[in-house]
Every structure is written in structure tokens, then in C-alpha cells.
Design goal:
This protein is an alpha+beta fold and 416 residues long. It has twelve helices and 25 strands. It binds adenosine monophosphate (AMP) and glycine (GLY).
Length: 416
């Protein structure tokens, strides 16, 4: 079996590793990949989506796995192009990926299908946005488009709201677009992932990510400083409620709206005093949640994704370890405001009880790895108990060194 994975980050490294460990030992390819991913998957010598599709066709690729969201909505859309060429794709077509790409589309979908979510209204101008806020703080402002995780501001007061409104409407930091003004919800957050195949689904191990840069959940938002995953993260009753009130109506809503879906769907939820509510959908696995979840997935992920992409949800091909998994991100100096590249990474070869997924590294001189981006590595350990996974992951993370390394020390420990 020949599988091509699209993307280049820590999430894709984890996916490629899980696919490589599948019993069929598939032949793996990547686009664009990274130096670390290329150790497991051959790079494809193309420079865009159109040539990628032609290459897949010419090389009889059996399955395309969409790791990163941007390709799903670029041009005609990765999955749409695959479908036209008869290449099974694990990842939804462009029209369905609007659930992630447009916050307004997602909000209308949620309301239409009576799925619990925060109240919101959409604004096209600064004036409309101010009037939608109506002087009520805290408020949540969301740019209506892909903004690499930077398009959301939780504003405690008028001053911070005005600053974000200026970025959106005056500086047009993310380009032209509308803004969603949303009710601020409170409660712990949880990430639920489902593999969706038409009208069927399978829920993966729940996870929680740590978005703030510093311990105690302080500091600026980042792309994710770590994650914890376990079936025991939330109790049976709550998971059943999430399935009934959120997952099932979402899958039914996709069908009712004629939105085809085969791939992972990520439900970003807030567990409010009024019950679980959706704060966002992402049409892919989470990063860094994927790095935490993948080591808990046993069985044949490659066969599962291939069958799913062809319309057959083969639940029995995979199962989930009952234990815990903790993923600690190592970030480079200056992150998240800036990042530093070229610092030599030491200690990777001496790790026990940990998996290492590369997010921002490249091959340096003498076969050493060097930093190449903000989030550099994900260090992941599993264990039968939360404590065991926490201890192993932090111990391993502490052994990896590079100049200016930053990490949180409370990943997996701090509860929200
Ligand atoms: P998003 O990009 O939609 O995931 O939003 C990023 C983060 O902003 C979320 O993980 C939450 O921490 C926060 N957030 C988003 N929407 C809300 C909301 N309605 N109320 C409170 N916090 C929110
Ligand atoms: N962990 C957040 C995300 O993948 O969007």
C-alpha cells in the first residue's frame, strides 16, 4: 500500500510514524514533509497541489492523508482534486472544510442543527463590531478565516477589544474578512476527535492542549505547549453526553446539508456549567493533541484510514490504550513572538520511555539536528497512570537541550 501524507509539522510526524508502524508496512510519501518526516516517508518532487495530484495518479498512490488544514481549502481543495482522479483521501472536501475555514459558516451550521455553542453575531465593519460587542466584557472576537490559530482574541475589556478590532479592520492583519463577536464561555476545555465516514463515526481518545506559553497557564497564546490524552480525562457520562448532544448531531447535520465527510473532525469544546458547548471545529487532527493521542492508538491505522477514505468505517481495525499520554513541547528562544533557528539539539539519542516528534527541526552539520522554527519538538510518554506518563514525559523533556529551550513544567499536571 502506498500512502502520501500532506503536511510538515509535529502532527504529521506523529501520523507518519503511526502509519509506518501499521502491520501492512505501507510505503510512505510526504508533501512537503520535513527532514525528520523524510526519514520515514519519501519526499515528492512537486511544488503545488496540481502537480501533487498528477504525481499521485502517475505513481498509483492508494491513499492521501491530509494532515494540515490549509490544503483542504486551497484552490479547488485537496480532497476534491483527489476525488476527481479517483484517489481515496482521508480528509474532507473544500465545501465541508468550511467548518474550520469560516467561523461564520461553522456558527450557522451549529445553530441550524441545534448543537450547543456560544451565542454570536457576525460583523463586516468596525462600527458593526463595536455595536455587536455592546459594551459587554469579557467578549470573544474571532476573525472569520484561517489565521494559523492567531485569529481569536478573548478580550477582558474595551481597550483589548479595540486593539484587536484595529488589527482586523484597520491593519487587516489577516487580510479582508468578517469578524464574529461571541459570548465568552467559561469552563475547562477538551478536544474530542472523531473519525467520520459519511454517516458513521468513531471517537478517538479525548485530549486537552495547553495553549499558553508559560506555567500556570500564563503568558501569550501559542500553537500549543503540550497536551494530555486519556480515555479517563472525562467521565463516561460526560462523554456519552458529548456524543449525543454534539458528535451525533454534527454527523447528522453534515448529511442533512449534503456536506461529504471522510476524515478526522476535531471538536474544540468548553465544558460550561450549562453543559458541553462547541467553540470550534477543525477538519483535521489537533496539534499537539495528535502527538499525544497517536501513541495510544493500537492496531492498523493505515488500513483504517484507507477503508475510511473508501467509505467503510472499520472500527475493529484500531483500538485505544486505556492509559495516559503526555506530550511536552520544546520551543525555541523567543517563541511565540519570534523563533530562532540553527541551535544544535542535544540529548535526543539518550531518551528512554519517550517518543520524539519533530515539529521545527532540520538536519544540521555532522548529522546533528538543529532548531528550525518556534515549536521544535514534541516529547511524548505514555503510562498506565497519569503520574507515570507525566513523570516520564517531563524527565525526557528535561534531557533534551538546545540554546534558549523553553517548555512548560505543568503539562499533564495542571487541570483546568
Ligand atoms: P479557537 O481558535 O476558536 O480555538 O479559539 C482559541 C481559544 O480561544 C480557545 O481554545 C478558547 O480558549 C478561547 N475561546 C474561543 N471561543 C471562546 C468563547 N466563546 N469563550 C471563551 N473562550 C473562547
Ligand atoms: N490544538 C489546537 C489545534 O490543533 O488547533
Amino acid at each position: 500500500m502506498k500512502i502520501l501524507v500532506v503536511g510538515k509539522g509535529g502532527r504529521e510526524h506523529a501520523l507518519v510514524r503511526a502509519l509506518a508502524e501499521s502491520p501492512g508496512q505501507p510505503e510512505l510519501f510526504c508533501f512537503p514533509g520535513s527532514d525528520a518526516i523524510r526519514e520515514l516517508a519519501k519526499p515528492v518532487p512537486v511544488n503545488g497541489l496540481t502537480s501533487l495530484i498528477a504525481w499521485m495518479k502517475a505513481n498509483a498512490i492508494d491513499l492521501c492523508v491530509a494532515g494540515e488544514e490549509s490544503y483542504l481549502v486551497t484552490g479547488e481543495g485537496l480532497a476534491n482534486l483527489c476525488e476527481r482522479e479517483g484517489i481515496p483521501c482521508w480528509g474532507p472536501p473544500k465545501q465541508s472544510a468550511q467548518l474550520e475555514a469560516s467561523k461564520e459558516f461553522a456558527k450557522e451550521f451549529l445553530l441550524r442543527h441545534h448543537i450547543p455553542t456560544a451565542k454570536a453575531s457576525a460583523s463586516g465593519t468596525l462600527k458593526e463590531a463595536r455595536s455587536a460587542i455592546g459594551g459587554v466584557y469579557p467578549t470573544v472576537l474571532k476573525f472569520d478565516g484561517l489565521a494559523a490559530g492567531k485569529g481569536v482574541a478573548v478580550c477582558p475589556d474595551a481597550e483589548s477589544a479595540e486593539r484587536f478590532l484595529h488589527e482586523i479592520f484597520v491593519e487587516q492583519r489577516f487580510g479582508e474578512g468578517r469578524l464574529l463577536v461571541e459570548e465568552c464561555l467559561v469552563g475547562p476545555e477538551v478536544s474530542i476527535f472523531a473519525a467520520i465516514v459519511d454517516d458513521r463515526y468513531q471517537i478517538f481518545t479525548p485530549a486537552r492542549d495547553y495553549k499558553r506559553a508559560r506555567d500556570g497557564d500564563e503568558g501569550p497564546n501559542t500553537g500549543g505547549m503540550g497536551a494530555v490524552a486519556s480515555r479517563k480525562l472525562i467521565d463516561e457520562k460526560l462523554l456519552a453526553r458529548i456524543e449525543q448532544e454534539i458528535v451525533q448531531p454534527t454527523v447528522a447535520g453534515l448529511r442533512a446539508d449534503g456536506l461529504p465527510y471522510r476524515g478526522f473532525l476535531y471538536f474544540g469544546l468548553m465544558l460550561t456549567p450549562d453543559g458541553p458547548k462547541v467553540i470550534e471545529y477543525n477538519c483535521r487532527f489537533g496539534d499537539p493533541e495528535c502527538q499525544a493521542v497517536m501513541p495510544l492508538v493500537k492496531g492498523d491505522l493505515a488500513g483504517f484510514c484507507l477503508a475510511g477514505a473508501k467509505g467503510d468505517l472499520q472500527e475493529s481495525l484500531i483500538r485505544f490504550d486505556e492509559g495516559w499520554s503526555v506530550c511536552v513541547t520544546l520551543a525555541s528562544a523567543g517563541y511565540p513572538e519570534t523563533s530562532r533557528s540553527g541551535d544544535v539539539i542535544k540529548g535526543l539519542n539518550d531518551l528512554h520511555d519517550a517518543r520524539v516528534y519533530h515539529a521545527g527541526t532540520k538536519h544540521g552539520p555532522d548529522g546533528l539536528w538543529v532548531t528550525n522554527g518556534g515549536r521544535v519538538l514534541s516529547i511524548v510518554s505514555t503510562g498506565g497512570t497519569r503520574e507515570m506518563a507525566v513523570t516520564r514525559a517531563h524527565q525526557a523533556a528535561g534531557q533534551v537541550q538546545f540554546a534558549g529551550v523553553q517548555r512548560r513544567h505543568d503539562i499533564g499536571i495542571l487541570n483546568f
